[in-house]
Specification:
Number of helices: 2
Number of strands: 0
Structural class: mainly alpha
Order of helices and strands: HH
Strand content: under 5%
Oligomer: single chain
Distance between the termini: 37 Å
């Protein structure tokens, strides 16, 4: 099967909800998506924390 990259961008506009979103994304959404799409790898990167290091 050919390789593909699927990129998702999510913006959490309420900073007080960011931790809850990250927890849901990592523990529920990503595992469900891996099962549904049959992916072999998944990378989750918080770009905001990366930008803060620049």
């Amino acid at each position: 099967m050919p390789a593909a990259y699927f990129v998702v961008r999510a913006t959490v506009t309420d900073a007080s909800k960011r931790a809850a979103f990250d927890t849901w994304y990592e523990t529920a959404h990503v595992p469900d998506a891996v099962k549904a799409f049959g992916v072999s790898k998944c990378l989750f990167q918080n770009m905001l924390s990366r930008m803060n290091r620049l």
